[in-house]
């Protein structure tokens, strides 16, 4: 399917890629690390797990319910960012994507441009290929990639595309590309939209909940 160049450039924009990275990190957050957040904030994750166990999902190739829930979450995120439905995603892919997500989370946790650059430099040196241009065999406008080839495994693709976008954001804005929600029950990562005052929470919902909780604590 051919789409207009402007639709393609929106899909491939640095900002959109960085937001896709944040969404995938949040979808892939390890259940053990995020257990509190999932029970407190996202009962949907439990429902997704139960649904996955009850139905024979095409993604249910894993032996653990956590991996299946992550596969379902990833399958939700990718089409929302213009990627095709990942029908061919395996439990091994999910495990590699989760590893990539854990490494990328450190970029969001970095408190300064210098700290984010140090994490990115280590990832670029250790995990990505050299910069190349691809048009996916004339399927898209030319754009840069850091993975080894167009059919690289999902984990490699996530690391490479994320490192590229986050590197450009640090270059462009001279500040960390995002942050981690300050709510202890959330810890979702988010992309900073501009170089205004530092954001503490991923969403208005988290900010309001924490403000109400602080108010209750203050009143005893
Ligand atoms: Zn939050």
TrEMBL record:
- Which segments constitute the Zinc finger CGNR domain? 180-217
Q: Which organism is it from?
A: Streptomyces varsoviensis
Gene3D superfamilies on file: Jann2411-like domain (1.10.3300.10)
Name it: Zinc finger CGNR domain-containing protein
Q: Which InterPro entries match?
A: ABATE (IPR010852), ABATE_dom_sf (IPR023286), Znf_CGNR (IPR021005)
Q: What PANTHER family has UniProt attached to this entry?
A: BLL6575 PROTEIN
**Region of interest (Disordered), residue spans:** 36-60
Superkingdom per UniProt: Bacteria
Upper taxonomic classification of the species? Bacteria, Bacillati, Actinomycetota, Actinomycetes, Kitasatosporales
């Amino acid at each position: 399917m051919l789409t207009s160049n402007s639709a393609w450039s929106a899909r491939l924009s640095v900002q959109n890629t960085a937001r896709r990275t944040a969404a995938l990190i949040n979808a892939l957050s390890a259940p053990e690390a995020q257990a509190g957040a999932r029970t407190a904030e996202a009962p949907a994750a439990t429902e997704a797990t139960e649904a996955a166990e009850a139905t024979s999902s095409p993604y249910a190739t894993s032996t653990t319910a956590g991996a299946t829930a992550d596969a379902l979450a990833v399958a939700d995120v990718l089409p929302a960012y213009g990627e095709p439905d990942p029908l061919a995603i395996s439990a091994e892919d999910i495990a590699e994507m989760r590893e990539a997500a854990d490494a990328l989370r450190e970029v969001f946790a970095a408190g300064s441009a210098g700290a984010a650059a140090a994490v990115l430099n280590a990832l670029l040196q250790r995990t990505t290929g050299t910069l190349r241009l691809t048009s996916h065999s004339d399927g898209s406008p030319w754009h840069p990639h850091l993975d080894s080839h167009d059919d690289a495994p999902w984990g490699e693709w996530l690391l490479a595309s994320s490192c590229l976008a986050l590197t450009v954001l640090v270059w462009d804005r001279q500040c960390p590309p995002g942050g981690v929600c300050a709510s202890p029950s959330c810890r979702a990562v988010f992309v900073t939209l501009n170089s205004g005052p530092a954001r503490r929470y991923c969403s208005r919902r988290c900010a309001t909940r924490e403000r109400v909780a602080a108010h209750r604590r203050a009143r005893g």
